[in-house]
Amino acid sequence: EATIERIAAGEVVERPASAVKELVENSLDADASRVRVVVEAGGTDGIRVTDDGRGMSAEAVERAVEKHTTSKIADIDDLEAGVGSLGFRGEALAAIGAVSRLTIRTKPRGANRGTELRMAGGEIESVKPAGCPEGTTVEVDDLFYNVPARRKYLKQDATEFTHVNRVATGYALSNPEVALALEHDGREVFSTTGQGSLEATVLAVYGRDVATAMLPIGARAESGADDADEAAIEAGGPLDELSGIVSHPETTRASPEYCSVFVNGRYVSATAVRDAIVAAYGSQLAPDRYPFAVLFLSLPADQIDVNVHPRKREVRFADEAGVRDQVRTAVESALMREGV
Ligand code: ADP
Ligand code: MG
Description:
Layout: H1 2-12, H2 16-29, E1 34-40, E2 46-51, H3 58-64, H4 76-81, H5 92-98, E3 101-107, E4 114-120, E5 123-130, E6 135-141, H6 148-153, H7 157-174, E7 179-184, E8 187-191, H8 198-206, H9 208-211, E9 214-218, H10 227-234, E10 241-247, E11 252-253, E12 259-263, E13 266-268, H11 271-281, E14 290-291, E15 293-298, E16 304-305, E17 316-317, H12 320-337
Parallel strand pairs: 1-7, 12-15
Antiparallel strand pairs: 1-2, 2-6, 3-4, 3-6, 4-5, 7-8, 9-10, 10-15, 11-14, 12-13, 16-17
Helix pairs in contact: 1-5, 2-7, 7-8, 10-12, 11-12
Bound molecules: adenosine-5'-diphosphate (ADP) and magnesium ion.
């Protein structure tokens, strides 16, 4: 059974970035206003996520590492949105704990003492009182130490870090009201202010050169919206809302990974949306160059194809052509408005 559990856990925790994703999501679920992600060697040597969220009592932290202990038995919206991880709801901590050495230090807000739980390979080793700040720190050491096949399959640290960075960046961009920091091998990679603006978050994550080259698109431009913007949203396409920012065509990268797309609040991979963004630039974009973009789309759940594999981030739309049209039109009008 232990083997089966480890294999199942390996499905949830594919690589360091998947653990980071689950831990950051838990911090956000716990209503944190500050989240700090610290990784060593791309996360292969250690992952630590600290938050100032609501914390857990000693009983709650023991329950949290058991299997099937979700606080959200059925997150139907996720299922319908097809981009959640319903299949693994309530199993993330247990799964991470099954394939690593896990330490949780946590204290509920207002409590006078906290708890430290240690676990290795799925077995709780100790639970004891601990002095710690309010909130929760989860430390994942020796990831896959007991799953050699999985350990071997890990890529170079730099590659693993790229994945971790992408996850952290996605959560930072979609949660501008949370101060989110990422540290790698003792170096601070970025740190957002949590002041609530997308522009400030882009500045923190991508730097000044990129931040100053960003143009607002769609609904965010509402105060100064021209007819083209309104039409983009009201053309009877599938999108209810479209907002975000895209970069000036001179500020590009050779990789499409700087096109961040969020569908109904979830960080996804949507090839159709990325293609539509690129199409809007037309010949202004050099071959194999991609703009920076942070786009938030919202549309009815029944417009998103349910993807049965919870780990996949790729999302498909019932009316893909409609989504493409609306995205392309909105980006085109943003570029036009800026005289680009
Ligand atoms: P899920 O998030 O789907 O409930 P997890 O295994 O990720 O399942 O977490 C189990 C439970 O542990 C959560 O429901 C929550 O009650 C608790 N928990 C996990 N991480 C934190 C955290 N950072 N702060 C407070 N509670 C947490
Ligand atoms: Mg969770």
